[in-house]
Write a structure and sequence with these properties.
Layout (H helix, E strand, L loop, with lengths): L7 H14 L4 H13 L3 H14 L4 H13 L3 H14 L4 H13 L3 H14 L12 H13 L3 H6 L3 E6 L4 H5 L11 E4 L16 E6 H6 L4 H19 L4 H6 L4
Parallel strand pairs: 1-3
Antiparallel strand pairs: 2-3
Helix pairs in contact: 1-2, 2-3, 2-4, 3-4, 4-5, 4-6, 5-6, 6-7, 8-12
């Protein structure tokens, strides 16, 4: 179908037309919601999935998708409830165990997070492999090496920009944006791009690039992949500093 072909917007439009023309089916609500999630519209997906779970309370997939939609908008307690409900319907849902691991990690519940991540890997090792883990100091060294290898003009731009490493985006950071940022974000530039700055700007908070270490580690399975992903993420956030939009970043291979 359209989703398998990567045509998420077309799939969403087709599902919406079908809902308007035919019977209100939970399958159509689910298709519409998954299409919205694929185009980074979790807020729009939530009411569709809530509707589908009411229509088909024993069907696990809408509960799974709803749990992830809640997670992506920072509604963590509701994500926990939806994931637990889905696992009561089907205990083999690897993506639900992974999500419970992410939620436990945010609560600093290390024992529960390790247990949930291990179960996700057991059920689906290809989708949820062991992450490649690196010490925080070593991780920061890799990021700083990326900056050191930049062209002199770019290094000069970054002289007043701080680089911070965090395990994952804190809740306050996520909810400080409208719409909320995705908790699985790899990096973030905070501040004014060079296009927005003026010579009168002074006294404000310094520009900052955040790198989210655990999210980056989970996106790879080897040291080489992690170093490459750190480099791409640093360059992506530098691009935001320079005022490049997502299309310009993608054209430069940094999206």
């Amino acid at each position: 179908g359209l989703l398998e072909q990567g045509e998420s917007e077309a799939a969403a439009a087709a599902a919406l037309r079908a809902l308007n023309e035919y019977q209100d089916l939970p399958e159509l609500r689910y298709l519409l919601a998954v299409s919205l999630l694929d185009i980074d519209e979790p807020e729009g997906a939530i009411p569709e999935l809530e509707h589908a779970t009411r229509q088909a309370p024993e069907w696990s997939l809408p509960h799974v998708a709803l749990a992830w939609a809640f997670f992506r908008v920072g509604r963590f307690a509701e994500a926990q409830t939806a994931a637990e409900r889905a696992l009561k319907l089907d205990a083999t849902l690897a993506e639900c165990h992974q999500l419970l691991g992410l939620l436990a990690e945010r609560r600093n519940d290390e024992a529960q997070s390790l247990q949930s991540f291990a179960e996700a890997r057991r059920l689906d090792p290809e989708r949820f492999p062991d992450p490649y883990e690196m010490g925080e100091d070593e991780f920061l060294d890799v990021a700083q090496q990326v900056v050191a290898e930049l062209d002199p003009e770019l290094r000069e731009v970054l002289e007043q920009t701080a680089i911070f490493v965090q395990p994952f985006p804190e809740t306050e950071l996520l909810r400080g944006s409208d719409p909320p940022l995705d908790p699985q974000l790899l990096g973030l530039f905070m501040g004014q791009s060079l296009l927005e700055q003026s010579v009168q700007d002074s006294g404000g908070l310094p520009n900052t690039i955040y790198l989210f270490q655990r999210n980056l580690e989970r996106s790879v399975s080897s040291r080489e992949e992690l170093e490459a992903e750190i480099r791409i993420t640093v360059l992506h956030e530098i691009g935001h500093h320079l005022g490049w939009n997502e299309e310009e970043l993608e054209a430069r291979g940094l999206a």
